[in-house]
Amino acid sequence: MRSTLAALMCLFVFSAIPAKAQTDCSGGIINDDGVFEDGLRFNAADGRMVQKIVLPSPQSLRSVCVCWQSLSSGDSAVNFNLLVYDATGVGGQPGTLIASVPETALGIPSGLTGKFYKYDLSGVNLSSDAYIGVQVNGFTEPGIYLCESTGLAPAKPGYASITGGAVWTDVVLLDPLFEAFGLRALTGPSTQSCFQTATDLCLNNGRFKVSAT
C-alpha cells in the first residue's frame, strides 16, 4: 500500500493487482485503459474526485458508470453523491456544479477487484465539456476507494477537492502515476435548445431561457 500526505489533503492510495474493468460499462466515453492498478480516497468529510469528459457537441448525459474497490471485507457498500460540473473553472478546472445526485453502491467486492456501477443521469444536459465524479465522506466510508488507472501514459484531466469544490488539485500532483479514474459516461444528442451557464438560466425543462449581464 502507498500513502501520501499532501498539503491540505490526506490521500490514501493503494496499489492493487491489476483488475480488468467489468463489461457492463464498456461503452460511451472511456478515459481509462480498462485496467485499474490503484484506488483513491480521502480521509475527509467531503472528498471529491472528478474526471473530464470531452464532448463533440451539445449532449445529454444518458448515464455515468463508477468503479469502486473495497479494502475492508466488512465494508461492501458506499453512499455518495454523483457529481457533474461544467469545465468553466480557472484553467479549465471544474467550474459550476450542474448536478449532485445521491446514490449507493452495494455488493462491492472485497480485496483488490473493482466493480462498475451504472447510474441514470438522463435529465442532465451539457453545452460543452464537463466533469463527472463522486463526493464521498471518507470518515463514514473508510474502506471504499474509487478505481484508478496508473502507469506511464499521459494523464487525463482529473481533479480532487476536500473544500467542497472551492479549491481543486490536479490528481497528478497527488499521485504522479495517475492516468484516469474509473469514471465513464454515456451521452447522446441533446434535445434542448437552452443550456444553463453563468449568465443564462433555463426554466421549465429548457423551454425558456433568461439571460443577464
Instruction: Estimate nothing, just give the exact number of structural domains.
Output: 1
Measured between the Cα atoms of the first and last residue, the distance is 51 Å
Helix count from the secondary structure assignment:
1
- Percent of residues in helices: under 10%
The H/E string reads EEEEEEEEEEEEEHEEEE
Overall strand count: 17
Low-pLDDT runs of 5+ residues are: 1-9
Mean pLDDT, to the nearest integer, reads: 84
Output the structural class: mainly beta
Q: How is the biggest beta sheet arranged? A: 9 strands, antiparallel
Strand content: over 45%
Shape: globular
Over the alpha carbons, how many angstroms does the gyration radius reach?
A: 17 Å
Topology:
Blueprint: E1 2-6, E2 9-20, E3 29-30, E4 35-42, E5 47-53, E6 59-70, E7 78-86, E8 97-105, E9 115-126, E10 130-136, E11 144-150, E12 158-161, E13 169-170, H1 171-174, E14 178-181, E15 183-189, E16 200-203, E17 208-211
Antiparallel strand pairs: 1-2, 2-4, 3-15, 4-11, 5-10, 5-12, 6-9, 6-11, 6-15, 7-8, 7-10, 11-14, 12-13, 16-17
Description of the structure:
By secondary structure, the chain is mainly beta. It has one helix at residues 171-174; strands spanning 2-6, 9-20, 29-30, 35-42, 47-53, 59-70, 78-86, 97-105, 115-126, 130-136, 144-150, 158-161, 169-170, 178-181, 183-189, 200-203, 208-211. It has one domain (2-211). Helix content is 2%, strand content 54%. A hairpin with a 4-residue loop joins strand 16 and strand 17 (208-211). Residues 1-9 have low confidence and may be disordered.
List descriptors.
single chain; 213 residues; mainly beta; 9-stranded antiparallel β-sheet; 6-stranded antiparallel β-sheet; globular
